[in-house]
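Lecture 7 notes. Example A: sequence first, then its structure tokens.
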Amino acid sequence: MIRRREFITLVGGAAAAWPFAARAQQPAMPVIGLLNGQSSTGFLPAFRQGLSEVGFNEGRNVAIVYRSAEGEVDRLPALAAELVQLRVVVIAAVGGDNSVRSAKAATATIPIVFTTGADPVEFGIVGSLSRPGGNVTGATFLSSLAAAKQIGLLRDIVPNLATIGLLVNPVNAPGLAAAVTNDVQKSAQAAGIKTIIVEVNNERDIEPAFARLVEQRIEALVIAGIVFFNLYRDRLVALTAQYRIPAIFSNRVFPAAGGLMSYGADARDAYRQAGVYAGRILKGEKPADLPVVQSTKFVFVINMKTVKALGVTVPPGLLAIADEVIE
């Protein structure tokens, strides 16, 4: 005969075990590995928005583990390998071309969703935009396509523009840096403008780069739309003000911080689309069947305070086409 105290213990133990058993029967929450070549996380709201559009919300029915190289590209292969070892369901590779290259080198089976400002076909990321093939797909905002328009905007503000500077960062985004350099040179040459190209490979290069551009007597400056430059936004804006250089950027955050103007693709939409694709893959779709999305929205922003500080003149027609005028 079971004693009363023993019976209560047995029943209590069984009751306590039931919730654990129920939880064990629930499917495990899928995990996305986010591989970021930079330290910037400004894209995360857009990525999470894309996930939510297809029914996934971080912490509720999907988990995200973050690995950031903090701008040190040599760390990316090890971080990508770590995500593979964690057996994540999808890898989202952002923050520069090297992120997706490292992810591709680490796995040929785990689906990879990327964002890039470069042409993913030209630089060997996918086989084609419509049929990427393999385990990789994503979104591109093709920053280099803005070059001709950026130079045209500078010419509107700087009459008889003869020499421009270009800042690029080939270490963190080699594909994009090459594409921007090529397109800026072609566009400038077609307009009869000389281009001075200066590479900024790390934070220490920033001030010497500006000193060199000033020595070369540039009259305007294009700063490539590479995530690395976003990290030093305030310093870049301050240097353009210090040397009184009319500069154009690719991202709205620069004129919002006091830069003269920006023109470029809306990168936020590319990050949102990456989130959508990650969610669709979680639902069972294959990356090879998801065509690479190209951003078609370009945004022009101008800061009138900086216009006045530099003493340049903005034609009325230029203000009329601006998506945003910061007073």
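Example B, a different protein, same format:
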Amino acid sequence: MKKIIIGVIAFAVVFGGIIYILSGRNNTGKIPTPQSATEKTGSNIPTQAPELIWDDPAGFTFRYSGGLNINNHEEDPDNYAHVELTSPTNPGNIIVWAKDTTAADVTAWVRTEKEFQGANVIDTTLGGQPAKKIILTGTVKKTVTGIVYDGLLFMIEGNTSGDTFWTSEYQKIGDSFRFKPPDTQTSDTSGGNSSGGGYDEEETVE
């Protein structure tokens, strides 16, 4: 009698094991492997474009996203720098300028520009120096951050119409903008990181 009971128990254990194994298989007869997050969603997680650094012979550097197109307009004979950034997917652009000016300082520059009359003017810094940020909201919508430094006018002009992508890129360029010491000024451009003084706005409106 005991042998019969033991045999029944052994059969039940073996049969239960077979059922468990079969229940873990898919309809192809193979035991499924865990799916990754990418396989479950059917899409890849996008990677952020690397940041590059523009090193301009006019004596400044700034960081920008590697997915942008950059044109330094070598055909422009009138300006020391005319660096235009565009995107293959987002309309608009950002231009970084270095120009001659007759203004003694940034305040005088803002007051003599007819385009800025009636615009919001915010005190800020650029490259660790006092600057002005001008927000134009009329027929022409753009943001301009300018500084008079070492006898030249440096400007970051954003023709972005409030686009989130360009707003972020404008902030990145302003935050990373640096003036180079005279003995390090070169005409090379390269990818990399930057550090030092930045672009900080103060809520002071003229």
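Note on Example B: The first strand starts at residue 51 and ends at 56. The longest helix spans residues 2-23.
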